[in-house]
Amino acid sequence: MQDIEKGPLNMGKTLAEKIWADHVVRSAAGEPDLLYIDLQLIHEVTSAQAFDGLRLAGRKVRRPDLTIATEDHNTPTLDILKPIADPVSKLQIDTLRNNSKEFGIRLHSLGDADQGVVHVVGPQLGITQPGMTIVCGDSHTSTHGAFGAIAFGIGTSEVEHVLATQTLPSTRPKMMAINVEGKLKTGVTAKDIILAIIAQIGTGGGQGYIIEYRGSAIRDLSMEGRMTVCNMSIEAGARAGLIAPDQKTFDYIKGKPHAPEDFAAAQSYWQTLFSDSDAKFDLEITLNADDLEPFVTWGTNPGQGLPLNASVPNPADIKDTEARGAAERALEYMGLTAGTPLKKIAIDTVFLGSCTNGRIEDLRAAASILEGKKIASSLRMLVVPGSERVRQQAMKEGLDKVFIDAGAEWRNAGCSMCLGMNPDQLSVGERSASTSNRNFEGRQGKGGRTHLVSPLVAAATAIRGTLSSPSDL
Amino acid sequence: MEKFISHTGTGVPLRRSNVDTDQIIPAVYLKRVTRSGFEDGLFAAWRNDPEFVLNQPQFKGGTVLVAGPEFGTGSSREHAVWALQNYGFKAVISSRFADIFRGNSLKGGLLTVILPQEAVEALWLAIEADPTTQIKVDLDSRTVSYGSASIAFELDDYTRWRLMEGLDDIGLTLKQTESIDAYEAKRPSYKPKTLPIRI
User: Fold this and answer.
1) Chain A residues with CB-CB distance to B194 below 8 A
2) Would you say residue A1 has pLDDT above 50?
3) Model ipTM?
4) How far does the CA of residue B92 sit from the closest CA of chain A (Å)?
5) What DSSP designation does A235 have?
6) CB 3.0–4.6 Å: which of A109, A154, A156, B14 could bond B78 by disulfide?
């Protein structure tokens, strides 16, 4: 008799393969799978044209009850209750408000208690849960993978597709495991893990893959830390990154407004969501957490990063011609000289916020360093909570006072200087230490120079005026 | 969507790698609520430099962009595809594209062609030697040809068919409404809903 347990069809599955299989509406040879989407998050910048498309074709939103919108990318962080000054920005916000009303979609507008960065809002409402498929017209949708969900960014045509059909034709990605084993040293955080991973595998290393982050160092992270890691999967080229749910995940969801009413039923399903021991990954990478140091980027893509104790690299030492050319260009844009210790680089602006590091734990970490201290007179520091709820919680804990007393600016929630779409921008040549996710040329403002850092490094840098870790204080 | 079967035009050699979507179109240009008019934001920062390839008169009117590896990394903004199309590009050739950008381009009818890096380098040299070089990107035969060179590229049959027929993806999926209904009927009740609002 054939031993079906060991047959190829019964081979172990990865976490992502299990979730994928649970969402296939239709599968046909030579075609992408038609995947059911459990949740679509909407914001003002990538949705207007999608709603227009629906109107033109006379189509409806199939599941308004699986859709939620917020205003974040293009919103001001000062004077939020006054009319938006820039008429083009105002039109974009008004368009989202009108579309949400017309199509019956829940919207959290500026000033609303649940407004905030789209990837902070989902988890804090308890709408992000294990085993889901989640999409949004934003590449940092990968954040939600921290709960053991397949979550990925899509373009506006796909936003329209999901609005109309609640499905998306998708080709199954390859599977990558990144094992981070060991224990992080004090002062080393989730942000340093992911910056080190991207520096190792490159900005294209994850192309075509879903990354599953595993290992003891990942399990030890809080949910906030796991979100930071998954958030930057896209910076390694992977559309999605995820982490198997565990008791921490369940505890985080419990008590949130949209936690399942039948929690036991949900949890018994969630507990099946892990990669089987005999699951096969197309690629497996291991990183030692014991050796990690606080990380910082020196160049113009997130893969150009080094431990904070290192010096600006010399392009001449880089063998690969492509990478050498890119490094030369990056140093020129960044106004850096090879051999300069990274800790000698003077900073003009510190930005604490974004969907990468704008959650309450990030604010607490930075405040713990800044408490009773002053930021350097040579720089400004912007603190932008990831959501209104985070802002309220921080104020309840008195963190706003810590930041203000230190000399930082305490703002309202939004994407802000992460992408420099609203008035929070760097000027030409201005240099930032930023807890956000992208150090591309001009990302935070035309001609601006960005160094990506963790909240702890951001706070220490604000005090010393040059790139620093808390151990330098 | 307009059908894409074959396109012939001159090329623009963009000798840069990791051209991210913030370079293709910076965020401040993303405020429009239409799909047109994004050409002014295309490579906005780089176009300030008179030496930048798009500012060189010999490459004016080029419709095939030939770029370095990791083209389109970063944000999911489909505006990057629209900006390239609004400016007049019909195809982009590179050895590696970021996943989301590639998906967006093929949904929107901007043909992204993956060629080996050596072929990209050869094409750069050919365009720079003679900017009037006619480059034919042919989806029917899945080849890029110019001068005496002809290089095959890969594209899955389904995407190729959809582009050549100019099909609306949503229309295709709506034909599967029965399957979607059947799937929904079996969805577990504990899956979260955004409505009614709970606080």
Assistant:
1) 39, 64-68, 106, 127, 258
2) no
3) 0.96
4) 18
5) G
6) A156
